[in-house]
Amino acid sequence: MRKASFVFVALALALAFSTPLKAQVAWDGPLLVGPETPTGWGIYLVDPSSSDGIGVLTTWRGGGPLGFRIGLADEGSDDLSIYGGVDISGRLVNAGSEFPLHVSWVGGAGFGVGDDFAVSFPLGLVIGRAFQAETVGLSPYIGPRLVLDAVFGRNGGGQGDGNDDDINLGFAVDFGLDLNFDPGWAVRFGVSGGDRDAIAIGVSFNVR
Known about the structure:
ten-stranded antiparallel β-barrel
């Protein structure tokens, strides 16, 4: 619990200095990582951060701590952006009699390429718990995180001189719900607030 408390304090302090990512699709909006993220392939419809249109995202997660993703999104004005990244997570606290929720740390690195080029590095917590009914498992979670964004290009946030590179610290919160069905597939919802403002819905086919 001490590690989790330290990360909570760091997130709260950094919130006052956060600045949103501008002019480029963010690969981690939404992040779609919970304490018990389904394994296997996933495919999603996404309205990603900084996008003027809909996108499509595919993900892969094996049995380890790593997840991979790549997607396409409409930036508006018939422009397409490609984005992708790698996330990594690990358990800090297991749910038990003293604390009823799972707590995991999550980090990652990814990119977005469109009118600008952006790289982003999120780091935060994910808190949730799985509940099992007869035919479906429910896994709600919440995930506050900091994100370091570096944007390079015409619209990166500088003074409009054609070389507007920018580096910002942002803050985002993910809300997610996984509906796990037998045999081995899940319907997944994810929403990001704060400096990401994104939404996704899709299906994950688990690998056993």
